Amino acid sequence: VGRSFESRRRPLVAEAFSSGSTTSGTVNVGADRDVNLLAVPVRHSDTTLAVLARERIRPVDRPTSEQERTYLTVFDRFARMLEAGEFPYREEERLRHRTPRVGDGLLLVDSNGRIEFASPNAVSLLHRLGMTRGVTGARFDDTGLGSSMLRAAFARRSAVIDEMERQDEVAVVSHCFPLLESGLATGAIVLVRDVTELRRRDRQLVSKDATIREIHHRVKNNLQTISSLLRLQARRLKGDEAKAALGESVRRIGAISVVHETLAQSAEDDVAFSEIVRPLVRVVEESVSSPLRPLAFTVTGDAGVLPGQVTTTMAVVLTELLQNAVDHAFPSGAGVADEDSRDGPLPAGQVRIDLDRRPDGLSVRVVDDGVGLPEGFDLAEATGLGLTIVRTFVEGELGGRIRLLPVEGGSGTMAEVWVPAARLVGPWGDANEPTT
Q1: Which of the 8 DSSP states describes residue 394?
Q2: Same domain as 351, residue 394
Q3: How far apart are CA 40 and CA 50, in angstroms?
Q4: For residues 330 and 188, which has the higher predicted lDDT (pLDDT)?
Q5: Are strands 295-302 and 349-358 parallel, antiparallel or unpaired?
């Protein structure tokens, strides 16, 4: 492939290309070795585009089988179609996963729909379909493959693909190629393939996907039940500190629940992280915002697609960063003003989530316009549970890093999580291209 040769080395090929007609003869290919060569022009709109050359060792005195004779006859018929510009077909169903293969069974059918020849693989397949009598001489309608495919190929004068399945026992893909002469269908070859095992595996995958989605759905329901129990317990407690601790637990469980809810709606384990971010923001916004101290959350950028396990970890991390921003950026205790305040509602606090997917990794920033970091703040010495969880997940599970910095040129804080690209690859390879 890709090699070129001079016309004098293959004069019959050069003649076929220049004349637009099939040529044949004997040529010497070296070492006193002669081969029979057939050069067939490939034509389109009265123009020769290429030449198909078939070289065969000169036959010895031996009998040829019916299958060999049939295959040679079929080739000659296709060669005439090539020369006439009738093949490849003008319109053809092109499905790469159904490309004909060497192991396919072959049926040669005449213009009346009667089978002239059946290869051993085709006979074996038709027997599995329930055709017990002789195949050669039978009508194609009696094979169980469906006569509509053959009629459609004759009418359209182009290849037709069909698939049939009989009671989940046998599945067959058929590829029908009409044989044309002067624009008329004079017969057809039908390639048949047993895809029973392939379809069985497809059904198993569908069943497996449905089972996985059901598991995610049940996990989500169980997490929501746990959240309800924690809320019920919080209402019975009298201490504010205990109530706050249970409230934080409810939010963390809610973050994980959002991920499982998304996974329950998809057959894939990979998730577009932006589909997770907005529900997480709503969870935090509903739990901390107040008419007296409203908070405005915005999301910018795109994090692309993440594996399910990474998505779950990042969901918890983002929830903790949002909660940390609300708790510490605004002095009104989680962003809510004193209900006894007579000064009216305060200006809305701004919290922005910036997502940035790059070839070398993922950056997630939470930026607020609050009071900023306390003087002398050191992340390494922070003992709060939220930041401890973030550091553990980001540095331990994701191999990334986290930093908290003052906002340049203004008030507020920026918390940034960076995860390297190597940790964003799922078990089946890198399917994590940014979504558009």
Answers
A1: I
A2: yes
A3: 9
A4: 188
A5: parallel
* 23-28 and 170-181 beta bridge pairing: unpaired
State the amino acid at position 255 in one-letter form: A
Which residue range(s) make up the domain with 407? Answer: 289-339+347-436
Span of 82-91, 111-120, 187-196, 328-337 with lowest mean pLDDT: 328-337
User: Looking at the structure, do residues 50 and 110 belong to the same domain, yes or no?
Assistant: no
HSE-CB of 180 using CA atoms within 13 angstroms: 23
- Average pLDDT, stretch 395-406? 91
The pLDDT tens digits for 279-302 are 888 877 777 666 666 788 899 999
Listed in sequence order, the residues at least 6 apart from 49 whose beta carbon sits closer than 8 Å to its beta carbon are 42, 43
Is there a domain that residue 368 lies in?
yes
Same domain for 333 and 408, yes or no, is yes
Please give the Cα distance from 51 to 114 (Å, whole number): 33
**Following DSSP, what letter does each residue of 181-244 receive, concatenated?**
ETTEEEEEEEEEEE-HHHHHHHHHHHHHHHHHHHHHHHHHHHHHHHHHHHHHHHHH---HHHHH
CA distance linking residue 11 with residue 188, whole number of Å: 33
d(CA 189, CA 117): 9
Residue whose token pair is 């998304």: 262
Place of tokens 């396919």: 104
Q: What percent of the chain has pLDDT over 90?
A: 32
At 338 the pLDDT is: 42
Between CA 374 and CA 332 the distance in angstroms is 16
What pLDDT band is residue 254 in, cutting at 50, 70 and 90?
Answer: confident
- With 50 as the cut, is the pLDDT of residue 70 above it? yes
Q: What angle in degrees, to the nearest 10, is found between the helix axes of 240-263 and 308-329?
A: 150
The contacts found for 69-76 with CB under 8 angstroms, 24 or more apart, are 70/108, 70/116, 70/117, 71/106, 74/108, 74/179, 74/189
Residue 58 sits in the same domain as residue 149: no
- Give the per-residue pLDDT at 429: 43
Q: From the centroid of its chain, how far is CA 398?
A: 25
Residues 35 and 173 in one domain: no
Has residue 227 been placed in a domain? no
- Of the ranges 45-49, 148-152, 193-197, 347-351, which one carries the lowest mean pLDDT score? 347-351
Q: Which residue has the higher pLDDT, 168 or 146?
A: 146
Q: What are phi and psi of 429, to 5 degrees?
A: 110, -175
pLDDT at 342 over 60: no
Residues 348, 353, 354, 355: what is their CA dihedral angle, to the nearest 10 degrees?
Answer: -160
Tokens of 117: 């020849």
Mean pLDDT over 79-103 rounds to: 74
